[in-house]
Amino acid sequence: MNSMLHITTLHYLVLGAALFLLGVIGVLTRRNVVIVLMSIELILNAVNLNLVAFSRYWQGMPARMGGGPMALHGQIFSIFVITDAAAEAAVGLGILIAFFRNKETVNIDEVNLLKW
Amino acid sequence: MLAGGILVITRRNPVHSALALIVTLLAQASIYLMLYAPFVAGVQIILYAGGIMVLFLFVIMLVSVDRSMRERQFNSQWVIGVIAATALGGLFIAVYTKGTSLFPDHASPVLEGDNTQRIATMLYGQYMFAFEIASLLLLVAIIGAVVMAKKRI
Question: For the domain with range A9-105, which CATH number is right: 3.40.50.720, 3.40.1190.10, 1.10.287.3510, 1.10.10.10?
Answer without folding.
Answer: 1.10.287.3510
